[in-house]
């Protein structure tokens, strides 16, 4: 967005992580990036290395001042980490990789120190806050901490408890904190992210039960909205919503991988 919308003036850090991670998955599968693609990915990573310390609008773009969103910082760490992995397969200057590595290590320490609430035993929504953010359900996928670590497991449980919107739904953040009129619905992709987090952290049965309940929320063609009203079940927001369906696919793949892992380690 360049003009005609407030997003034109936003600094939004989180998007780079998934792009660079996708490039890493392609590299990991044995497909070398062409020169133009690697220059683009490396440019994104340079931008992250230069701007990760700045507050941003966050994934949900709530109305308010920029803040140090922990999810955004995690996604910046993801971009730096995956770019360093790709750099092992692509010609990259030592100076550039040192800059990325220094940024990754510094950022990782900062997330651990400022993005975690030791009293509540959970990663938080922003630095210094006590609120949680359902976007942090992606934490088990990043390798920032082991998926079975106490801090990761406790974060998943805290999000599930604090943002509960009634089985099988969760809110994306505490309702009433986005600066907009009206009531916040349950954001459906977050429930599928919870399935993915549960499956990835070894809680396959809980994940499968939640997944089945979410599938029942689809209309006859299986299409899903962006949000649901937790009380009535009415669809809210965009319909059909691509993000909801993408999260469904990710959840299904996480369940498959969890079953395969159990089968290979009886």
The largest pleated sheet is described as: 3 strands, antiparallel
Q: Give the CA-CA distance, first to last residue.
A: 50 Å
Number of strands: 5
CATH topology of the largest domain: Glycosyltransferase
The computed structural class is mainly alpha
Please state the overall shape, judged from the principal axes of the Cα atoms. Answer: globular
Whole-number tally of structural domains: 2
CATH class type of the largest domain: Mainly Alpha
Overall pLDDT score: 92
The number of helices is 8
Strand content: under 5%
The oligomeric state of the chains shown is: single chain
User: What's the helical proportion of residues?
Assistant: 40-55%
Q: What is the spatial order of strands in the main beta sheet?
A: 3-4-5
How would the blueprint of this fold be written?
Layout: H1 15-28, H2 35-51, H3 70-87, H4 94-114, E1 116-117, E2 122-123, H5 150-162, E3 186-187, H6 188-200, H7 204-215, E4 227-228, E5 235-236, H8 242-264
Antiparallel strand pairs: 1-2, 3-4, 4-5
Helix pairs in contact: 1-2, 1-3, 2-3, 3-4, 6-7, 6-8, 7-8
Describe the overall structure:
The structure is a single chain. This protein has helices at about 15-30, 35-50, 70-85, 95-115, 150-160, 190-200, 205-215, 240-265, and strands at about 115, 120-125, 185, 225-230, 235. The protein is mainly alpha-helical. It has two domains: about 1-115, no CATH class; about 125-265, Glycosyltransferase (Alpha/alpha barrel), CATH 1.50.10. A three-stranded antiparallel beta sheet has the order 3-4-5. The protein has a two-stranded antiparallel sheet with strand order 1-2. β1 and β2 form a beta hairpin. The longest helix is centred in the C-terminal third of the chain and has 23 residues, at about 240-265. The protein is globular. The mean pLDDT is about 90.
């Amino acid at each position: 967005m360049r003009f005609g919308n407030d997003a034109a003036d936003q600094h939004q850090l989180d998007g780079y992580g998934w792009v660079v991670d996708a490039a890493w998955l392609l590299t990991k599968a044995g497909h070398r990036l062409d020169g133009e693609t690697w220059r683009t990915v490396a440019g994104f990573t340079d931008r992250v290395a230069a701007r990760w310390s700045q507050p941003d609008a966050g994934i949900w773009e709530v109305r308010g001042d920029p803040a140090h969103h922990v999810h955004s910082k995690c996604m910046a760490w993801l971009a730096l980490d995956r770019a360093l992995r790709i750099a092992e397969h692509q010609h990259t200057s030592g100076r550039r990789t040192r800059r990325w590595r220094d940024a990754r290590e510094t950022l990782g320490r900062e997330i651990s120190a400022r993005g975690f609430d030791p009293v509540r035993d959970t990663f938080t929504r922003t630095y210094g806050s006590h609120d949680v953010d359902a976007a942090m359900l992606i934490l088990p996928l990043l390798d920032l901490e082991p998926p079975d670590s106490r801090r990761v497991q406790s974060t998943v449980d805290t999000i599930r408890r604090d943002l509960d919107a009634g089985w099988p739904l969760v809110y994306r953040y505490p309702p009433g904190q986005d600066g907009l009129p009206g009531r916040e619905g349950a954001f459906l992709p977050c429930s599928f992210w919870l399935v993915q987090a549960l499956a990835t952290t070894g809680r396959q049965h809980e994940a499968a039960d939640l997944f089945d309940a979410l599938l029942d929320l689809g209309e006859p063609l299986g299409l899903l909205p962006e949000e649901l009203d937790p009380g009535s079940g009415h669809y809210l927001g965009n319909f059909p919503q691509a993000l909801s369906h993408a999260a469904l696919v990710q959840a299904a793949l996480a369940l498959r991988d969890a079953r395969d892992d159990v089968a290979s380690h009886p």
